Structures are given as C-alpha cells and as structure tokens.
Amino acid sequence: MTATRPLNHEWLFAIGLVLLAAVSAASVAAASFSAEQDIAVRVSPAPGAHAAQVTTAGDGIVMSGGHSVLSKARMEFELPPADAEGQRWVVLFHRVMVEEIDIGNAQWHSPTRRFFAPHADEGAIPSVFVFTLPQHWQDAIALDLRVRSGTGGVLRPLVMRESTAIRIEQRIIALAAAVYASLFMLALMMLALFHAAHDRAFLAYFGFALSALLMVAALNGHLYLLPGFRLLAPWRELGAVALTMLFSAAALQILMRYADLRGSSPRAAALGRIACTVLLAIAALALLGLETLRAPLQAASLSGWLAVSFGCIAVAFDAVRRRVAMARPIALLCVLTGIAAVVAELLSQGYVGDFWWTRRGYQVVLVACAAALAIGLAARVSDYRSQRDRARLAHEDSDRRASREAARLALAEGLQARLKLLAAGDLEWTAYRRVLDQLRRMLDLDAAAAAIFGSDSETLLVAEPNERKPQYAQLVARRQNMLKSLARTRAPMQVTLDEPDAPPTGKPVPAIVPLPLHAPAWGVMILERGRGDGFTTDELALASEFGRLAVQAIDEANTSIRLRRSAEMDALTGALNRRTLDQWLSRSFSEAHRYNKELSVLFVDLDNFKAINDTYGHAAGDHCLRRVSGALRGVIGLHDLLGRYGGEEFLVASVDATSDAARQLGERIRAAVENLPVEWSGQTLKLTASVGVASRWPHEHEPNETIERADKALYAAKRTGRNRVSVAPAVFI
Where does the chain cross the membrane (predicted)? Predict the structure, then answer.
C-alpha cells in the first residue's frame, strides 16, 4: 500500500473505537474482580513435602515453573453463619494455566479442576475455578490447596458468596464472548473482501484474526472445549506457546503488509521476514512437546512477543511518518496493546493488582487494534475500484464517465444518509423519488415513474413529476402483465406500451428498466424522453444502476432497522433487553431529575417459576414468559418502559407516576398475571407475580438507588406470602 493522505476523520473514528471498547468492557465488568471478595483468606505453606511458596501479603501462592510441579498450601478463613437466603460460600480462583487444582480437608474434598481438560459441569465457557463449600460450614475453616502447574505465576484464592461468584463469572463470559465475536466477524469480513478484491493482504488479515482468536481462546482456556482443538490439551503450556508465536508472526506480517514495508524499507522488511521465520520455528519446537525444552521455550515465547510488540510499534510509527491512512490510531493502539500485554504478564507474576482491565484489558485493546487495522486495509478496496475505473475510462469518454460515477456515488451516499433517518414505511417512496428526480435531470427526461408490486399484492407508484401519476396509474393497470414479463428479464430495453392493435402514434418509445427485487415482488422504472432519439446503452446501464442502488439502499435500511430492533429487544419476550433497559433508565432518571418529574420503578418477579421449569420443562417456562410479557404490555401506560431484567424478572419504569399511581399499576400487573390464562400441553398453568415498587426521590438522578429499593420491596413481597405488591420505603428484615 502506497503512502496516502490520512483519512479526514481517522482520529475521531479511533477515539470513538476506543471509547466503544471501553464502554463494552465496562458494561460487563464495572468493577475489579478482586474487590468482590467477601472473606479474608490467610495462605500459608502446607506442612510436609511440596510446600508452596507464599506471597508476601500471605494471600496467595507462588507457583514454580517446570514439569508438572506440585504445590501445596493451607488456606484459613472464617465463615459467618448462613444468611436468610441460604446462600452458600465458594472458593474462587481465576482461571490460569494449571494442570489440576483442588481443595479439601479431612471431612470434605472438592472435585479436581483442570485448565486443559474442562469438565462438562463447568459450563459452555468456563471462566473461573469455583469450589462450592458445604452449606453447614461456618466459623474457622482450614482447607488444603493442591495445585499442579507447568508454568510459574501467582494464584490467589477468593472466598465469597455463590451469587457474587456467579456475577464475576458472568462478567468474564460476556467479555470473552464479545472478544471472540469481534475477532470472528473481522476475520469473515476480510475473507469476503479477499473474495471480492483478490488482494492477498485481506487473506493475510484473515489469518491474523483467526490466529488472534485461537490464541485468546487458548489463554482463556476455552479452546480446549471445541472438537478438534482438544487435541492441543496434551501440549498444555507448550500449545499456548505455539499459538502465541503463531499470532505474533501473523501480527508482524499483516502490519508489514499494511505499511508496505517492502516498498518503503526493503532491509526492514527482510528483518521482519526473518523474525517471522524464527517465531514459526519456536512454534514448531513447542509442538514437539519436549519437556526438556519447556523452560527455554517459555522464555523464548516471552522474549518473542515482547520483541514483536516493539517491532509492530516501530512499523506503525514508520507508517505515521509516511502518512499511511489510519496509521496514527493504529500506532496508538499498538502501544496500548503492548502495554496491556505487559500488564497482564506482570499480573500473572503478582506484581500488579488484580482488576478486570489488568487481567482482560489486553484482549479488549487487541480487538480495537484489529478493527482499526481492518479499516486501514479496507482502503485497498477503493484502490482496486480506482484501477478498474481507469481501465474503463481509457476506452470511453472520461469526463462523462467521471460525472456519472460521481452522481452514482452521490446518490448512494445520499440514499444511505437519508434512509437511515426514516421509518420503514417511508423508505421505498423516498428512495425511488430521489432516483427518478436524479435520472430526470441527468438523462433530460420528460417524465418517469417507478411501479413496484410487493409480495403482499400492495402496489407503490411513484411519478416524476407528480402530476403525471394518474396517467401512469392507468398505463400500469392496462399493461401490468407486459410490464411483469419485462421485469423478469432483468434487462433494460426500449419497448412501446401501446395496445397491440393501436395505430402508430409517432411518440418516442419509452425505456423499461427492471428493478432487481426479490421474487415474488417485482417492479420497473418507466423513462420517457420527448426527443426522437432513443436511449443509449450507457444511459440504460446508468438507469439500471440507479435502480439497483435504490433497491440496495432500501434493503440495507430495512436490515439496519431490523438489527437495531433486535439489538434492543429481548429475543424471547419482545421486551427491552437488559442493556437497552439500563440505557433508557439512565436517560429517564436524568430527565426526571432535570425537570423535577415523578418516576417510579416496578420489579415484577414470577412466583415459584422454577417449579414450572422443573415440572413442565424450559419450553413451557419460555411460553409463560412470552405470555406474561404480553400481559404486562397490555397493562402499562403508552409511555412506560417494559424490559426483561433477567430470568423470570421484569422491570417497568412508569413515567410521571407518583408512588400511589405506581402502587395501583403494580396491583393491575399482579391481577393481570394472576388472571392470565396459560395453556401448555392441555394443562392450565397458574401463574402469580410479586411486585416491588419504588419511586424516585428528588435528589436521585441515576436509577441505582431506586432500583435497589424496588428490589428490596420485591423481596419483602416474596417474604410476606408472594402474589402481592410491596411499596418502598418499607422495613426490610
């Protein structure tokens, strides 16, 4: 890629990309993982052989590197009596590369967990090692920790309630899923660009994104759950070394391609190729699985990715110097990726604190860097199109072609900008009106019309000028079968639309331009020009292209509308999903505080819902949730918000509702659920719901405190018999 002028808005895009990554990460990990610990744990070396070295703070063990080194330690902590909810205590370890880990004492022993061989009961995406303690345990507890590992590092036990552990695990799973999905979609996008442009840089990026996905999945321990990749488990840490070196080579290679290092600095490009060869050699040695090479290969892996990080940063800053598109944000993100990776390594050795951004931050920044690099490489598509256009312009009138190409691009951009602001019902009329207006000016038309027949037998007729619409309506009704046959040919042509037995009128023959609609829908554009000469092939091609752009813009706008709706809605119930609900709540509370308005929150939780799932199955439970969601929509106000908060729990935000009005709404909700007829497999299911109500206090501009009061009110309703409404403030015991 040659040096080009930087994109006008590349810095704005880069900042937006980083902010998006930060917001996405913060939404799934709003606090550090270590801050969630409930019970202090004292760790000391276990008596006897294999005693582990303990951290200076006495809160974890220091694992020694080597071949399956066994480390033992004693954990001591005090458990308070069980709470009213009967939540159990668990011991949690962050998922690091250990061959096996378990805890226990003379009375109880946990199952053994393995990083490289996850058990089925750990879930689809295991994120932590969790050991649930016996429910009756309390007061002073002493447990023996046994860890077998082939790599060095620090391992800290955390004792907390089971619900806290679940929240931590959910955060990690959400972040990992977002990282995997982002890398996978970037890989697919570049594979599609390679298929379209036949540029090997896109294929190289596909390999880079795929190697990043495999490396991150291996470091998280999720790769070993996939069929086929379980074969890497016997290599243990050496398998991760191989994938890390493979990714490092791919990252250096794609960055050199992006910056066109071969053209700007052949000597540096040669050094880069040598470095890639060395990295691949280290990966190959790691796959040999020789235990005698374990320690040297681990040291070589650490040195290798550090060297590659500095190399990538140097290449990126060289691209900045040569003004390559997107070079500045890519250079910044390369620096951040290297820093985040170093921080993660320091965390594994116990030198920095355990927060979500120190443990998982490098994965988020890696995705942002990969996305910015994808945008930089995508500039090759415009280069490819420019070359194609120059070859065509060599045989045709360059000024006319350039003018029409500019008009086509302007139309595409104008359609995209205009249609994204409209509702679905206005898309077709607006798009075809704009196309006809532009064709009329460019081709010097007297009149034009677009007739579209949808799959539901509805007809859209757009005429330019609009005064000709009645004439076109008569023409389309009279010659509909003929127009439909012409539309099926998908080829523009000039055809007379007079009746077969009608005498010649001497009028110019109109052009019929089929629209590429998906069957059974069909449509045509009818173009009329008063001059005696007909339409040229180029003019028909231009009209056909404009029609295609209109259809494409309409499809993309409809797809965008559907995607926005699906991103905002819970797929099962049709209510707002949790992320969208949180956004609307924050906005509503801010507006209510600004204008001193009333706002109430109602938590609705189905009573004994687990019994329905256990008795009739989860399909019946899903059916109940859909029915309840529909019932709630029928009760709440037009401007009220309804969202699924999680599981069988819904949340309603009632705008301008006082506490008394919210209580009455809660009673209507409770009655609606109680009286809701639900049939499943010939049986009538009886549903009831408990409702917790809380109203915004004047000083509250964020929803957290109100939601917490509504949640407490809900649990008060549960404790006092269910199927009732409880209003905060109340005494919660």
Answer: 172-194, 201-226, 238-258, 270-290, 302-320, 332-352, 364-382
pLDDT digits (tens, 9 = 90+) for 545-602: 888 888 888 888 888 877 776 777 888 888 888 888 898 999 999 999 998 999 999 9
Looking at the fold, whether 187 and 335 belong to one and the same domain comes out as yes
DSSP count for the chain of H helices, then E strands: 20, 22
Residue 653 — φ and ψ, nearest 5°?
-110, 115
* pLDDT tens track for 460-510: 888 788 888 888 888 888 888 888 888 888 888 888 877 666 555 557 788
Range of the domain at 504: 403-566
Could you give the angle at which helices 10-28 and 162-197 cross, rounded to 10 degrees?
Answer: 150
Of 510, 542, 566, the last residue of a domain is 566
Asked if residue 351 and residue 251 are part of one domain, the reply reads yes
Q: Which class for 405: exposed (0-12), middle (13-18), buried (19 or more C-beta within 10 A)?
A: middle
Contacts of 250 (CB under 8 A, 6+ apart): 204, 207, 208, 211, 212
* Kind and range of the H or E run holding 269: helix 266-287
Rg (CA), the chain: 33
> Residue 292 domain-assigned?
yes
In this prediction the pTM is 0.51
Domain boundary among 514, 542, 566: 566
Claim to verify: residue 553 and residue 599 sit in the same structural domain:
no
Does residue 162 sit in the same domain as residue 173?
A: no
Sign of CA dihedral 463, 467, 472, 473: positive
At residue 61, the 3 state secondary structure works out as strand
H or E stretch covering 608: none
pLDDT tens profile 194-232? 887 778 888 999 999 999 999 999 888 888 888 877 777
Q: Where on the phi/psi map is residue 195: left (φ > 0), alpha (ψ -120 to 50), or beta?
A: alpha
**Span of 534-543, 658-667, 692-701, 713-722 with lowest mean pLDDT:** 534-543
Q: 492 lies in a domain?
A: yes
| Of residues 592, 682, 683, 607, the one with CA closest to residue 641 | 592
The CATH number assigned to the domain holding 675 equals 3.30.70.270
Total structural domains within the chain: 4
Query: First and final CA of the chain: distance in angstroms?
Result: 68
* 422 located within any domain: yes
Could you tell me which residues come within 8 angstroms of residue 368 by beta carbon, excluding any fewer than 6 positions away? 17, 18, 21, 333, 336
Residue 149: its H or E element:
strand 139-149
Instruction: Give the three-class secondary structure for 384.
Output: helix
Please indicate, yes or no, if residue 556 is contained in any of the structural domains.
Answer: yes
89/143 Cα distance (integer angstroms):
14
Q: At what angle do helices 398-419 and 427-442 cross, to 10 degrees?
A: 160
Q: Where residue 217 sits, what CATH number does that domain have?
A: 1.20.1070
Please indicate, yes or no, whether residues 283 and 431 belong to a single structural domain of this protein: no
**Residue ranges of the alpha helices (H) in 288-326?**
294-321
Please report which helix (H) or strand (E) contains residue 350, including its range.
none
Phi, psi of 389, deg, nearest 5: -70, -40
Q: How far apart are CA 600 and CA 707, in angstroms?
A: 9
Same domain, yes or no: 265 and 250: yes
Beta strands across the sheet bearing 53-54: 53-54, 61-63, 153-155
Q: At what angle do helices 294-321 and 266-287 cross, to 10 degrees?
A: 160
What's the chain's length in residues?
733
